[in-house]
Amino acid sequence: MEYTVQKLGNLAGISTRALRYYDEIGLLKPARKSSSGYRIYGQPEVDKLQQILFYRELGLELEQIKNIVNNPGFNGSRALEEHREKLLAKRMQLDLLIINVEKTISAKGGESIMADNEKFEGFKQKLVDDNEQQYGREIRDKYGDDVVNQSNAKMLNMSEEKYQAFTLLEQEVLDRLAEAVKTGDPSSELAQQTAELHRQWLGFTWPSYSKEAHMGLAEMYVADERFAAYYDKVQPGAAQFLRDAIAAYTAQNQ
Amino acid sequence: MEYTVQKLGNLAGISTRALRYYDEIGLLKPARKSSSGYRIYGQPEVDKLQQILFYRELGLELEQIKNIVNNPGFNGSRALEEHREKLLAKRMQLDLLIINVEKTISAKGGESIMADNEKFEGFKQKLVDDNEQQYGREIRDKYGDDVVNQSNAKMLNMSEEKYQAFTLLEQEVLDRLAEAVKTGDPSSELAQQTAELHRQWLGFTWPSYSKEAHMGLAEMYVADERFAAYYDKVQPGAAQFLRDAIAAYTAQNQ
DNA sequence: ACTTGACCTTGACGCAACGTCAAGGTGTAT
DNA sequence: ATACACCTTGACGTTGCGTCAAGGTCAAGT
């Protein structure tokens, strides 16, 4: 089946202007031009447009999309698998915002206290995630990790060194957590070290620290299974354990 | 606590440039200016910025956001409730895309057939949803439904009359489904009428119809509980029933 | 007091991704 | 031939900043 700009635009839900623009920039060329000059698109273009729309949804710039889909080595199936992963990640990021708004509602109702930095939970993560979507895989493969890390660091207004320390500390939290969980005791030395490391990690993105906010975040980790999953990859029950460790940590440092 | 542009920008994950721009357009004015001309923000501005970021996340233009948050009647708590609703809707819309990519992967693997129009499921819904976020509540309240419906119709490249018919038919499907489900028989006259109405509804957005695609969509309705919920609001089990009705309908019209 | 580096200001240019409009050609049904 | 929907190219304009320049301010260290 063949499509002119309006048919294809209707099919996909984009404007004819966008299709002409995509032609102009070399992102999506029509299969051919009719004798009267009309753009005629075919099946391969339909499939390619689908890919383009997924990439666009994930926040990539058109020039980037162009470089990806027009690469001779482009693999449509593999790309689809990646879209899926990234859409799931985007969904999780959206979940962060939903939880944020729910917490803010709760705080507004006087049921809890919310620190200023908590009010922006999710938005900053979105920065890094969006940056990762845009530059992550392709650029890492091509230029190595530094370019992306620099960009992520910039997003969070950190030096590259600081960002590296940030990500290393995150890994250390996970590693220490894995060990601590084996003790089965959230107030054990290892568990308290984990909580302290976690606190240090928070220091990178929080302008100020409070035990309440720390505890609030820990509660969030277990309040929703989607976030518990991040820590439970270390060990089932690790998110709960970390919450308890933080509870002990914040109570002890009162 | 008070913040200068960089502190507030770091807190919220936005650039100093954005904050200055927001000041410039009157969206977010600082609490005061220091003797040296520095912008100084306080607690009310922090809360307001959070609201702005939620609206921005939901796709509203800054001018629109400005009109909303600077309205003397603006109610922060009510706004937060609305953010929550809309974020959940956005999440559902994202789920559509995830299911689409999963179906495309399946089709690529030869496990199923996928029509061209199915490849863009979710993207077109995104158009209407985004439009609704931008213009829905406030404009409907202010000017009535027609302005938004016109805009939605334009999004889907329909006349206003066609869009009205489209939305009315959608309601009719739900109404007929409610009745049909009471028969308990997916091949009953009522159930088959429902499936026929559903097919007509699809005719508004699909350039071509196929039984396979129809069946595929019906499977989607029950494959994921998040979408089943849309039909199950009629009656628990209605999504399943509709799927079965469509199965009978497409088998019978073979 | 002076220096240094981080942070602040205003002003201005430029960009991505189109939306909109104008002028004129094409296809199809009546 | 007419009418209407759709096509083309060309061009201007918009939104929301990113980036840069020039110069002022703040705070800690010497």
From TrEMBL, chains A, B:
Entry's Gene3D superfamilies? 1.10.1660.10, Antibiotic binding domain of TipA-like multidrug resistance regulators (1.10.490.50)
Question: Could you tell me the keywords of this UniProt record?
Answer: Activator, DNA-binding, Transcription, Transcription regulation
Chain ranges passing through the membrane: none
- Where in the sequence is the signal peptide annotated? none
The HTH merR-type domain sits at: 1-71
PANTHER family in the record: HTH-TYPE TRANSCRIPTIONAL ACTIVATOR MTA (PTHR30204:SF90), REDOX-CYCLING DRUG-SENSING TRANSCRIPTIONAL ACTIVATOR SOXR (PTHR30204)
Please report the name of this protein according to its UniProt entry.
Answer: MerR family transcriptional regulator
